[in-house]
Design brief:
This protein has 15 helices and 13 strands. It has helices at about 35-40, 55-60, 75-90, 100-105, 115-130, 145, 155-170, 185-195, 205-230, 250-275, 280-285, 295-300, 345-355, 385-405, 445-460, and strands at about 30-35, 95-100, 130-140, 180-185, 235-240, 245, 305-310, 315-320, 325, 365-370, 410-415, 435, 440-445. A hairpin with a 5-residue loop joins strand 8 (about 315-320) and strand 9 (about 325). It binds beta-D-fucopyranose.
């Protein structure tokens, strides 16, 4: 039925109707949408916001498709009130956003009132409209002044992060339902320091492992601070997880798939949940052991209230003939505008796998899941049936994992609206709301309309 080409956004389901026994129909299950500061806010020079590594990186020719930057993005910094109303109109239970560190704190660690007020007002309005607020402290926009001091290669950045977490949780206490320290440390460390696809664009695996250690240390230092300053809120972290499947039954390919998941998932989850860095990582990356000081892993392994999981696709791999793996992309499968394979089974497999591997696995929120398609407004409508089909199938996978015993509390669609998709700029559209970047007009896609309807009906019944 499907071929390798990205699917037409029109091909797929035309409904959003989880089965009668779906976890989604439970009153206490949270259905929300997610965004991140650099991807939507714009206003990068306003009200004392300082430069971030993504301003610097996207200004370098060739780093971002079409030379796009976050300078204007969805202009959410100015349109936030209307955007909250838009969210409320979708009837969602919650909203995941992130704070731009360079907006709220200066080089000396002093608060920037105007930047902080922006988030106070935003959170107040969200809560006034009955939404739960999930706040990520670090969704990749590191202040450039910290990068100039070595960024995440400098151990001191972990302590600066803890100071920032302290300031935010004192200022915003009582307005946040759940704090997330970091978004996807794998991307910050690997894409930022090993393959250079993301800011700061460095390419050395030893940097990546050291950056990962400092990111996780920053997380661990922040956890007790967040708990102390904002005791009523939950504290967690967000990991992007990858499903690696083997191209054949051969032991070498099976090992390749194992290593793929080790470097995607265990690299982050083992320090957090087992206080260990997996040794086998360094068979893949000889000599890349990070410098870890005594006590660091105890800090990193502080208990969590929840774990945020971001899931998008699987990677089929085979042995590279030595100690590693290479991708073996399957043919004839459904893909999205990103070229990512649609593979809902991977979500189920990973969740059940984590449940078995980690006896202390905290409750799970799916903090991102969704897809990009080449959506257009035609006669005032955006028909994104492939997205509906994608969401329906991933939610069915979530139901299957819940039935198998995984404690799943919520699901956030990435994303509320089309936005700056990092190295892919504005070309890839992940929103359930379409954004016209010339006019900043928001148009609900069919997926958004049907989800809003589903939630209205669900809320009537409960
Ligand atoms: C994740 C990021 C998010 C978004 C999605 C598509 O890796 O956390 O900001 O770009 O991918």
């Amino acid at each position: 039925m499907f071929n390798d080409a990205p699917q037409s956004p029109n091909a797929g389901d035309q409904t959003f109707s989880p089965p009668a026994d779906s976890i989604l129909r439970r009153k206490d299950f949270l259905l929300g949408t997610a965004t991140a500061s650099y991807q939507i806010e714009g206003a990068i020079h306003e009200d004392g916001r300082l430069a971030s590594i993504w301003d610097t990186f996207s200004a370098i020719p060739g780093k971002v498709l079409n030379g796009d930057t976050g300078e204007v993005a969805c202009d959410h910094y100015h349109l936030w009130e209307a955007d909250v109303d838009l969210l409320a109109g979708l009837n969602v239970d919650g909203y995941r956003l992130s704070i731009a560190w360079p907006r709220v704190m200066d080089e000396k660690g002093q608060p920037n009132r105007k930047g902080i007020d922006f988030y106070k007002n935003l959170l107040d309005r969200l809560r006034a409209k009955g939404m739960k607020t999930f706040v990520t402290l670090y969704h990749w926009d590191l202040p450039q002044y910290l990068e100039d001091r070595g960024g995440w290669l400098n151990r001191d950045t972990a302590f600066r992060f803890a100071e920032y977490a302290d300031l935010m949780s004192r200022e915003l206490a009582g307005k946040v339902d759940a704090w997330m320290t970091l978004n996807e440390p794998w991307c910050s460390a690997y894409l930022g320091y090993a393959n250079g696809h993301h800011a700061p664009g460095l390419t050395n695996i030893r940097y990546a492992t050291q950056a990962m250690h400092h990111l996780l240390l920053g997380h661990g230092l922040a956890v007790p601070i967040l708990r102390k300053n904002d005791p009523a809120s939950q504290v967690g972290i967000v990991a992007n997880v990858g499903r690696g499947t083997a191209d054949s039954d051969s032991p070498a390919d099976q090992r390749a798939a194992y290593l793929f998941e080790l470097q995607h998932n265990n690299w982050i989850l083992d320090p957090l949940l087992k206080k260990q860095i997996p040794k086998e990582l360094f068979e893949l990356w000889p000599g890349a052991e990070p410098l870890v000081l005594e006590g660091d892993l105890d800090i990193i392994g502080a208990p969590l209230d929840f774990l945020g999981i971001n899931y998008y696709f699987r990677t089929n791999v085979k042995s590279d003939g030595a100690h590693g793996f290479v991708e073996a992309p399957p043919e004839g499968v459904e893909r999205t505008q990103m070229g990512w394979e649609v593979y809902p089974q991977g979500l189920q497999d990973l969740l059940i796998g984590f449940h078995k591997t980690y006896p202390n696995l905290p409750p799970i929120y799916i903090t991102e899941n969704g897809m990009a398609s080449d959506d257009e407004v035609i006669d005032g409508e955006v028909v994104d049936n492939q997205r509906l089909s994608f969401l329906n199938r991933h939610l069915a996978a979530l139901d299957a994992a819940a039935k198998a015993g995984v404690d799943i509390r919520g699901y956030f669609i990435w994303s509320l609206m089309d936005n700056f998709e990092w190295a892919f700029g504005y070309e890839r559209r992940f929103g359930i709301v379409h954004v016209d970047y010339q006019t900043q007009k928001r148009t609900l896609k069919r997926s958004a309309q049907l989800i809003a309807q589903f939630l209205a009906d669900r809320n009537k019944q409960s």
